[in-house]
Amino acid sequence: MRMRKKKHLYKRLEKVSNYFINVKKDIPNVKEAILQKDYLNLCNIFGNENEICIEVGCGKGEFISEMAKQNPDKNFIAIEMIENIIMLAAEKAASFELKNVRFINVGAEYLERYFKDQSISEIYLNFSPPYPQKSYEGRRLTNNDRVKSYKNILKNGGIISMKTDDKGFFDYTKDVLTGQGFSVTDYTGLDDKYLPSSLAVKTEYETKFMNLGITINRLTAKK
Description:
Layout: H1 9-15, H2 30-33, H3 42-46, E1 52-56, H4 62-70, E2 75-79, H5 83-95, E3 101-104, H6 111-114, E4 120-126, H7 144-153, E5 154-164, H8 167-179, E6 183-186, H9 197-200, H10 204-211, E7 217-222
Parallel strand pairs: 1-2, 1-4, 2-3, 4-5
Antiparallel strand pairs: 5-7, 6-7
């Protein structure tokens, strides 16, 4: 079932347009698109040379806004392909008048077209759809192709942080990350005070699940 467009969607998007990075979407074939580079000038976008962190699938923006508030010396880019959702995330960032957050309305498979190799410090994957059916593995945000692209744009020593309530998806992701040479640390079950900020900051889903007593699986993977 397709999601209905929010009322006044485009007017609301226009009001927060300064939070969006416009990118070319002229090549629908992913393999062709990532060969036709259209690298972003990140220094011009943010007006500084601070390190860049990316959230892939930002939801309503609770996590990325809180990370930006806590880390004013870092720049954050949130990737989200659904207009209804990314609009809400941008509105949240605007409500806090955050200067170090931007949004891109695009799928994760296109990241290598817009970001240079070894240009990103951290990547956040929060409650990504698990797509448990084997036939849908290509849609998972932690399949081998996606992880390879994250690895390419991450700096040496860069970190992927991941949280999910789905244990099967978590174990699958650990295997993929380990198989591609990442050093994986499992933080599942630890108190917040022992977590890095990328895992301690809550998402909307996380707060809901924790209130229901659902275990949150957490890891970091270092390149």
